[in-house]
Every structure is written in structure tokens, then in C-alpha cells.
Give the backbone structure.
Amino acid sequence: MTRTHTPGNPALVAARLAMGWYSQAEFAAAFEEAASVLGHPVGLSVRNIRRWESANPPRPTAVYQHVLEAMFGRRLAELGFRPLDFETEAEEGDRGEGMRDLLNGVPDRLRRLMRLEESALSVFGYETLRFPGVLQSPRCALATIHMHEPGLSPAVAAERLRIRLARAADFAERGVPAWFVVSEAALYHPIGGLPVLAEQLGHVLSMASRWPLLRFQVLPLTSPFTVSSPMMMMETEPGYFAAWLEQLTGSQLVDGPDDIGVFRASFDRLVEAALSPEASLELVDLRRRDVCTALEMSAYRGGGSPATAGTTPV
């Protein structure tokens, strides 16, 4: 008998493994936590996951679809589920308001940034107090979004999270060479709380292990050289760079040759002052273990259990 369908749902399995959830139980726990953060406190059983990862998986209901797309930064069809007829129109009805609110608030310069990212040949970045968006875990990314705009509705925040994760996944999947320098302060700043920080530190280690062209360095607090503001540079054509600067009240795209020369020289000095990639990842892992220990001690004193989902040693 000729097999007409490939068994299983390899798209969802691959996406799960890429996020570091190596068992279906880990996936279920991460799903329930994400659902709670998104305002949808629903449960998910391993049995349900087995059905989703089988051939011809049943389509999740609207709430589960919302959580899945926010977690992975991908549309449901990209996770191996059969699209509905006229799905585009259905999504416009279910999610259109949040998407319109998001796009209405995106200035032309940010649209240009997104276009530059799509064609970037390489990317370089420096952050002072947090991890670059490309390296943020889903929970850290959502906490960062709410930190900057606490009044966002859950629907708009979830849509922004989906787009942010999709942009990050695109870099890794295309194998874009990336070089990030992060101030050591980011390893201590608990955006979203200590459990989120522990997960974020583990996420960086996971990204470094599965993104061969990622180079990550930590600028120690003892460094005599630093730069006061974050920056991001992209090589959009061979030898052509553009820099993106984020500020509290807006952003700026810089592509003048003289200005780019200043940014490249500053980044080179940051690289020289930073720890080596090997020492940087060792420091991230040490800090992650310290945070996990602090959470365990706090839970022990309080008679509970530490909320450290997703912090399994890499």
C-alpha cells in the first residue's frame, strides 16, 4: 500500500525542539505558562500534544491557536496544521483589530528596519541593560514589550510578540552571521522577574549552541571602555551598513558613511574590551545557576517550589 502522507507533524516537532523543549511534557508546561501570561489560563496535556504531532493533526481551537502562534512566532499553518478555507479573512476577523493597532503605530522608519532585516547579510549589536531582541526568550520578549508600553491590550501585545519572535527566528533559520556584545548589567536586570531572567540566560546558551554563526560577548562592568546607548548595525549589501538606534521617544536609522564609520569603530572597541565568546558563555551559565539557586532557596524558605520552567542546564 502506497503511503500518501508523511507520518507525524515534523514542522511542530522541529519548532518545539528549536525552542529547547525536548520532551512533550516540557512543551506542555511552557504552553500553560505562556497561556497564563497571555491571559488564557488553559491547560494542555501530553496526549493533546501527541495528537498535534501526529499525521493530519486536528486544528487547535482559537485560544490554543493564539497561544501557539505567540510562543513560536509563526502562523498555525507554518506549524504543520491544515489551513482553513478563507483563513486570511478569518484571521482578519479574529485578530484584525490588534494587528491594525500595531501597524497603525509603526512609523515608516520601523517598517524600513523590518525590510532591512529581511535582506541583512550580517548583523552586529550592542545592548546596555537587556538582551537584544533577537536573543530574547518568549517570556522575556513579552515582559519587555509590556515594560515599554504597560497599557497594551493582551491581543496587541501577543501580536507584537509573534512578530518579534518571527523576526528573530528568521535570522537563525537563514544562518545570518551575527555578533552581539551585551553589558554585564543585562545578566542582572530581572525584566519580568527572576524566573524570566533564569529562562532568558538559558535561552542565550541554547541559541549559541544551535546558531553556528552567532558570536556573543559580555562587556564586563570593570571595562574601562563602554558606549552609553544601544546600537544595531546591519550589512544590507556587501560592504554597505546601516545603523539603528533606539531611544525612549523614538528611533533613528543612520546610513551616512561617516556616521557608520564611527559606529563600526566603536563596535570594534567594544569587542576588544569584552570577554571572549567562550568566557562570556561561561559567565552567562554561572549567572543562570546563581539565579536558579536563589529561586530554589526562596521557594524552600516559603515552602513552595521554584518557578524556573525552561531553566534546565544546557
Q: What stands out?
A: Residues 89 and 96 are 9 Å apart (CA to CA). The beta strands are 122-127, 178-183, 214-219, 231-237, 240-247, 250-254.
